[in-house]
Amino acid sequence: MNPAESTPVLDVTHLTRTFRIRGGRGYVRALDGVHVQVPAGASVGLVGESGSGKSTLARIVAGLIKPTSGSIRLMGADAGGLSARRRRVLGRDVQMIFQDPRASLNPRLPVRRIIAEPLVTHGLSSSADRIAEILDMVGLPRRFADHYPHQLSGGQCQRVGIARAIAVRPRLIVADEPVSALDISVQAQILNLLKGFQEELGTAFLFISHDLGVVRFFSERVAVMYLGRIVEEGETEAVFAAPQHPYTQALESAAPAVRFAERRERIVLAGEPPKPEEPPGGCPFHTRCHRRIGPVCDDVEPAAIPAGDGYAVCHLLDDTRKATHHGRMSGDSLRGDPSGTFEQRP
């Protein structure tokens, strides 16, 4: 194997990001020791509730904000140690697709100038023929080159956003909820379009979504985030077929089932996620966990335990912890009496 091909396009290690609360009343840790790796040409999904830190991670990877600490390696180069000029050059290899397609486009520019911006920035041809070729790639008529964003539908605006992202042939695209604002029928078209670019151009994706069905279709691997941390990671089908972390189990149980036979018992988590400025001690999920096994969950931060070809961060997978606290476990604690209930999925 070519060493360049074996080097991940993205390798995030021990990444943290804190924000000061308005008024100077402390800090919020949006990311807490995150590890993510995206192999060349692959797609890694990132799922979790709103506020889990997904978009913060996306913006750091895209270079829009800086991390507080940790390492980001892009194509094997330490992004944090690069000069501003070298970071701009490397930026050609990392592009972003945003959640709101219309808001991500400059309303004062025609489509041809929106697509031309990254080409001009990186010294590439932005001729009319090149713009027309890119429009063809995303399935838009060439006459749209002179249209403005307000003249386009949401799906067409997202295609323009995709055209802008692929114009410079990046090696990594960070897609932050790229289809959540679109109609279901348009979502399928956009996902197939992005999948085609992955297969034809070898583009890798960090694909962020709260929709497990979308991630299951698009990504080969998935990382599950909760309160700024990765709590489970692995091959997508394996994680969704047999989730190991209680939080992943709850997310998977809430995903719509196409066939009646596939319906699972719904796990309803009680309460809301803890405030980021006041994270709980021990396991960050213990205040809502339906499988809490005792004081160890409240007091001790769990380690990452191998699960399949990935891992999950949970005391349930630690045989030593389970043995130590077996005598303290009860039926009520295993069923999640204080923090969760089950109900049949409608």
Strand content: 15-25%
Widest β-sheet, arrangement of strands: 6-7-8-3-9-10-13-12
Biggest sheet overview: 8 strands, mixed
- What is the CATH-assigned architecture of the largest domain? 3-Layer(aba) Sandwich
CATH class descriptor name of the largest domain: Alpha Beta
Number of domains: 2
H/E element sequence:
HEEEHEEHEHHHEHEHEEHHEHEEHHE
CA-atom Rg in angstroms: 22 Å
Helix content: 25-40%
Extract low-pLDDT stretches: 326-346
Distance between the termini: 49 Å
GO molecular function: ATP binding; ATP hydrolysis activity
Pfam families: ABC_tran, oligo_HPY
Family: Belongs to the ABC transporter superfamily.
Domain ABC transporter: 10-252
Explain this structure:
The chain has helices spanning 3-6, 54-61, 84-91, 111-121, 128-137, 154-166, 184-201, 212-218, 236-241, 246-254, 295-299, 319-324, 331-335, and strands at 10-20, 27-38, 43-47, 69-74, 77-78, 94-97, 172-176, 204-208, 221-226, 229-235, 265-269, 304-307, 310-313, 340-344. It has 346 residues and is an alpha/beta fold. It folds into two domains: 39-67 and 82-225, Rossmann fold (3-Layer(aba) Sandwich); 242-344, no CATH class. Strand 4 (69-74) and strand 5 form a beta hairpin. The chain is globular, with a radius of gyration of 22 Å. It starts with a helix and ends with a strand.
